[in-house]
Write a structure and sequence with these properties.
Blueprint: H1 4-17, H2 25-37, H3 42-56, H4 61-69, H5 74-87, H6 93-104, H7 108-120, H8 126-138, H9 142-153, H10 159-175, H11 178-190, H12 194-197, H13 200-213, H14 228-237, H15 241-246, H16 248-255
Length: 256
Protein backbone atom coordinates (compact mmCIF):
# COMPACT_ATOMS: atom_id res chain seq x y z
CA UNK A 1 0.00 0.00 0.00
CA UNK A 2 1.01 3.65 -0.29
CA UNK A 3 0.83 6.62 2.07
CA UNK A 4 -2.28 8.83 1.55
CA UNK A 5 -0.28 11.86 0.35
CA UNK A 6 1.77 9.83 -2.11
CA UNK A 7 -1.32 7.97 -3.28
CA UNK A 8 -3.18 11.22 -3.91
CA UNK A 9 -0.30 12.62 -5.96
CA UNK A 10 -0.05 9.39 -7.96
CA UNK A 11 -3.79 9.37 -8.69
CA UNK A 12 -3.68 12.96 -9.96
CA UNK A 13 -0.63 12.20 -12.10
CA UNK A 14 -2.27 9.15 -13.68
CA UNK A 15 -5.56 10.98 -14.21
CA UNK A 16 -3.78 13.57 -16.31
CA UNK A 17 -2.65 10.95 -18.84
CA UNK A 18 -5.35 8.31 -18.45
CA UNK A 19 -6.89 8.93 -21.86
CA UNK A 20 -3.77 9.88 -23.80
CA UNK A 21 -3.39 7.88 -27.00
CA UNK A 22 -2.39 5.14 -27.12
CA UNK A 23 -4.30 4.22 -23.96
CA UNK A 24 -1.90 2.46 -21.57
CA UNK A 25 -3.38 -0.56 -19.83
CA UNK A 26 -0.79 -0.47 -17.04
CA UNK A 27 -1.77 3.08 -16.15
CA UNK A 28 -5.41 2.04 -15.85
CA UNK A 29 -4.55 -1.00 -13.75
CA UNK A 30 -2.45 1.11 -11.37
CA UNK A 31 -5.03 3.90 -11.27
CA UNK A 32 -7.83 1.47 -10.39
CA UNK A 33 -5.67 -0.14 -7.71
CA UNK A 34 -4.86 3.24 -6.13
CA UNK A 35 -8.52 4.25 -6.15
CA UNK A 36 -9.37 1.05 -4.28
CA UNK A 37 -6.62 1.74 -1.76
CA UNK A 38 -8.11 5.18 -1.16
CA UNK A 39 -11.48 3.64 -0.23
CA UNK A 40 -13.21 4.58 -3.49
CA UNK A 41 -15.57 2.11 -5.17
CA UNK A 42 -13.15 1.97 -8.08
CA UNK A 43 -15.08 -0.56 -10.15
CA UNK A 44 -18.22 1.56 -10.10
CA UNK A 45 -16.24 4.70 -11.00
CA UNK A 46 -14.40 2.99 -13.85
CA UNK A 47 -17.49 1.26 -15.25
CA UNK A 48 -19.11 4.67 -15.68
CA UNK A 49 -15.99 6.12 -17.33
CA UNK A 50 -15.50 3.15 -19.68
CA UNK A 51 -19.16 3.09 -20.69
CA UNK A 52 -18.94 6.77 -21.62
CA UNK A 53 -15.82 6.16 -23.71
CA UNK A 54 -17.28 3.04 -25.35
CA UNK A 55 -20.36 4.97 -26.41
CA UNK A 56 -18.06 6.99 -28.66
CA UNK A 57 -15.74 4.09 -29.64
CA UNK A 58 -17.71 0.81 -29.34
CA UNK A 59 -15.11 -1.25 -31.21
CA UNK A 60 -12.05 -0.19 -29.24
CA UNK A 61 -10.31 -3.39 -28.09
CA UNK A 62 -8.45 -1.64 -25.29
CA UNK A 63 -11.64 -0.04 -23.92
CA UNK A 64 -13.53 -3.33 -24.16
CA UNK A 65 -10.73 -5.10 -22.31
CA UNK A 66 -10.55 -2.44 -19.60
CA UNK A 67 -14.35 -2.52 -19.21
CA UNK A 68 -14.18 -6.29 -18.82
CA UNK A 69 -11.64 -5.99 -16.01
CA UNK A 70 -14.11 -4.19 -13.75
CA UNK A 71 -17.20 -6.31 -14.38
CA UNK A 72 -18.83 -7.78 -11.25
CA UNK A 73 -19.07 -11.35 -12.63
CA UNK A 74 -16.77 -13.61 -14.64
CA UNK A 75 -19.54 -14.25 -17.17
CA UNK A 76 -19.91 -10.54 -17.93
CA UNK A 77 -16.14 -10.15 -17.95
CA UNK A 78 -15.83 -12.96 -20.52
CA UNK A 79 -18.28 -11.28 -22.87
CA UNK A 80 -16.22 -8.08 -22.95
CA UNK A 81 -12.98 -9.98 -23.54
CA UNK A 82 -14.61 -11.88 -26.41
CA UNK A 83 -15.75 -8.58 -27.91
CA UNK A 84 -12.24 -7.16 -27.52
CA UNK A 85 -10.74 -10.12 -29.40
CA UNK A 86 -13.32 -9.76 -32.15
CA UNK A 87 -12.50 -6.05 -32.43
CA UNK A 88 -8.73 -6.65 -32.61
CA UNK A 89 -7.40 -10.24 -32.57
CA UNK A 90 -3.85 -8.91 -32.16
CA UNK A 91 -4.48 -7.04 -28.89
CA UNK A 92 -2.68 -9.27 -26.35
CA UNK A 93 -4.32 -8.15 -23.10
CA UNK A 94 -7.66 -9.66 -24.11
CA UNK A 95 -6.13 -13.15 -24.13
CA UNK A 96 -4.71 -12.61 -20.66
CA UNK A 97 -8.23 -11.69 -19.60
CA UNK A 98 -9.59 -14.86 -21.19
CA UNK A 99 -7.31 -16.90 -18.92
CA UNK A 100 -8.91 -15.59 -15.74
CA UNK A 101 -11.96 -17.85 -15.66
CA UNK A 102 -10.13 -21.16 -16.21
CA UNK A 103 -7.38 -20.09 -13.79
CA UNK A 104 -10.00 -19.37 -11.11
CA UNK A 105 -11.19 -22.97 -11.56
CA UNK A 106 -7.76 -24.57 -11.76
CA UNK A 107 -8.44 -25.54 -15.38
CA UNK A 108 -4.83 -25.13 -16.48
CA UNK A 109 -5.21 -26.82 -19.87
CA UNK A 110 -7.87 -24.25 -20.83
CA UNK A 111 -5.93 -21.30 -19.42
CA UNK A 112 -2.55 -22.01 -21.00
CA UNK A 113 -3.45 -21.41 -24.69
CA UNK A 114 -4.75 -17.94 -23.81
CA UNK A 115 -1.61 -17.11 -21.83
CA UNK A 116 0.67 -18.35 -24.60
CA UNK A 117 -1.30 -16.39 -27.20
CA UNK A 118 -0.84 -13.21 -25.14
CA UNK A 119 2.89 -13.89 -24.93
CA UNK A 120 3.07 -14.66 -28.67
CA UNK A 121 1.47 -11.27 -29.39
CA UNK A 122 4.17 -9.52 -27.35
CA UNK A 123 2.61 -9.06 -23.92
CA UNK A 124 5.32 -8.55 -21.33
CA UNK A 125 3.56 -8.55 -17.98
CA UNK A 126 4.86 -10.13 -14.79
CA UNK A 127 1.44 -11.28 -13.58
CA UNK A 128 0.87 -13.01 -16.94
CA UNK A 129 4.25 -14.71 -16.57
CA UNK A 130 3.34 -15.99 -13.12
CA UNK A 131 0.00 -17.29 -14.38
CA UNK A 132 1.69 -19.15 -17.22
CA UNK A 133 4.26 -20.53 -14.75
CA UNK A 134 1.62 -22.01 -12.46
CA UNK A 135 -0.47 -23.29 -15.37
CA UNK A 136 2.49 -25.17 -16.80
CA UNK A 137 3.44 -26.60 -13.41
CA UNK A 138 -0.17 -27.67 -12.97
CA UNK A 139 0.09 -29.53 -16.29
CA UNK A 140 3.33 -31.28 -15.30
CA UNK A 141 5.54 -29.22 -17.63
CA UNK A 142 8.19 -28.24 -15.06
CA UNK A 143 11.06 -29.58 -17.21
CA UNK A 144 10.04 -27.51 -20.23
CA UNK A 145 9.72 -24.42 -18.05
CA UNK A 146 13.11 -25.01 -16.45
CA UNK A 147 14.75 -25.10 -19.88
CA UNK A 148 13.07 -21.79 -20.80
CA UNK A 149 14.28 -20.13 -17.62
CA UNK A 150 17.81 -21.47 -18.08
CA UNK A 151 17.92 -19.98 -21.59
CA UNK A 152 16.62 -16.63 -20.35
CA UNK A 153 19.08 -16.47 -17.47
CA UNK A 154 22.24 -16.08 -19.52
CA UNK A 155 23.80 -12.72 -18.77
CA UNK A 156 20.83 -11.24 -16.86
CA UNK A 157 21.65 -10.30 -13.27
CA UNK A 158 19.06 -7.55 -12.77
CA UNK A 159 15.69 -7.81 -11.04
CA UNK A 160 14.24 -9.81 -13.92
CA UNK A 161 17.20 -12.17 -13.73
CA UNK A 162 16.65 -12.78 -10.01
CA UNK A 163 12.93 -13.36 -10.56
CA UNK A 164 13.73 -15.75 -13.39
CA UNK A 165 16.09 -17.63 -11.04
CA UNK A 166 13.40 -17.96 -8.36
CA UNK A 167 10.96 -19.40 -10.87
CA UNK A 168 13.66 -21.77 -12.14
CA UNK A 169 14.20 -23.00 -8.56
CA UNK A 170 10.47 -23.64 -8.29
CA UNK A 171 10.61 -25.84 -11.41
CA UNK A 172 13.66 -27.73 -10.19
CA UNK A 173 12.03 -28.29 -6.81
CA UNK A 174 9.12 -29.98 -8.60
CA UNK A 175 11.58 -32.45 -10.12
CA UNK A 176 13.66 -32.69 -6.92
CA UNK A 177 16.90 -31.68 -8.67
CA UNK A 178 18.72 -29.96 -5.81
CA UNK A 179 22.15 -30.46 -7.40
CA UNK A 180 21.15 -28.56 -10.53
CA UNK A 181 19.53 -25.83 -8.42
CA UNK A 182 22.82 -25.28 -6.58
CA UNK A 183 24.70 -25.26 -9.90
CA UNK A 184 22.31 -22.61 -11.27
CA UNK A 185 22.72 -20.60 -8.06
CA UNK A 186 26.50 -20.58 -8.40
CA UNK A 187 26.19 -19.78 -12.09
CA UNK A 188 24.03 -16.77 -11.33
CA UNK A 189 26.35 -15.52 -8.59
CA UNK A 190 29.34 -15.82 -10.93
CA UNK A 191 27.80 -13.20 -13.23
CA UNK A 192 27.89 -10.53 -10.52
CA UNK A 193 31.03 -8.41 -10.02
CA UNK A 194 33.12 -9.79 -7.14
CA UNK A 195 32.42 -6.82 -4.86
CA UNK A 196 28.66 -7.20 -5.41
CA UNK A 197 28.74 -10.97 -5.03
CA UNK A 198 30.28 -10.62 -1.58
CA UNK A 199 27.44 -8.52 -0.18
CA UNK A 200 25.25 -10.40 2.35
CA UNK A 201 22.02 -9.19 0.70
CA UNK A 202 23.09 -10.60 -2.68
CA UNK A 203 24.19 -13.87 -1.09
CA UNK A 204 20.79 -14.15 0.63
CA UNK A 205 18.91 -13.44 -2.60
CA UNK A 206 20.86 -16.19 -4.33
CA UNK A 207 20.73 -18.86 -1.63
CA UNK A 208 17.25 -18.27 -0.21
CA UNK A 209 15.21 -19.43 -3.26
CA UNK A 210 16.99 -22.79 -3.30
CA UNK A 211 16.60 -23.33 0.44
CA UNK A 212 12.98 -22.23 0.40
CA UNK A 213 11.79 -24.10 -2.68
CA UNK A 214 13.38 -27.33 -1.44
CA UNK A 215 12.10 -26.77 2.14
CA UNK A 216 15.64 -26.85 3.54
CA UNK A 217 14.67 -24.49 6.35
CA UNK A 218 17.97 -24.78 8.26
CA UNK A 219 19.79 -23.30 5.24
CA UNK A 220 17.77 -20.08 5.25
CA UNK A 221 20.04 -17.38 6.64
CA UNK A 222 18.81 -14.16 8.32
CA UNK A 223 18.07 -11.67 5.57
CA UNK A 224 16.61 -8.27 4.88
CA UNK A 225 14.83 -6.69 1.93
CA UNK A 226 13.40 -8.98 -0.72
CA UNK A 227 15.01 -12.12 0.73
CA UNK A 228 13.16 -11.58 4.01
CA UNK A 229 9.98 -12.82 2.30
CA UNK A 230 11.48 -16.31 2.26
CA UNK A 231 11.90 -16.24 6.04
CA UNK A 232 8.26 -15.23 6.41
CA UNK A 233 7.31 -18.07 4.07
CA UNK A 234 9.35 -20.48 6.19
CA UNK A 235 7.45 -19.49 9.36
CA UNK A 236 4.08 -19.86 7.65
CA UNK A 237 5.02 -23.16 5.93
CA UNK A 238 6.19 -24.67 9.22
CA UNK A 239 3.05 -23.70 11.11
CA UNK A 240 4.53 -20.79 13.03
CA UNK A 241 1.65 -18.40 12.30
CA UNK A 242 1.60 -17.00 15.86
CA UNK A 243 5.26 -15.98 15.53
CA UNK A 244 4.42 -14.07 12.35
CA UNK A 245 1.45 -12.31 13.97
CA UNK A 246 3.54 -11.42 17.04
CA UNK A 247 6.38 -9.89 15.01
CA UNK A 248 5.61 -6.22 14.35
CA UNK A 249 8.47 -5.88 11.87
CA UNK A 250 7.11 -8.75 9.78
CA UNK A 251 3.55 -7.41 9.98
CA UNK A 252 4.70 -4.02 8.71
CA UNK A 253 6.43 -5.74 5.81
CA UNK A 254 3.28 -7.72 4.96
CA UNK A 255 0.82 -4.82 5.05
CA UNK A 256 2.88 -1.97 3.55
Amino acid sequence: STQPESRSRAIKFLEAGLWSEPIRVQWHRTYTHLLKESGTDADEVMIKLYDEKLAAAPHSAVLLYLRGRVCPTLEETESYFDRAIAADPKFPWSYLGKSWKPISRGEWADALPHLEKAEELGLKDRSAGFSRHFAMLGLGQAARLATEYQNKAKGDVGLDGLMNFMLLCDCLAHSGDLELAHAEMNNMLSRFPVEVRAQPEVQALATSPVAYMFARWNELTPASGAAQNFEIGKLLATGQVKQVLANQQILRLLIT
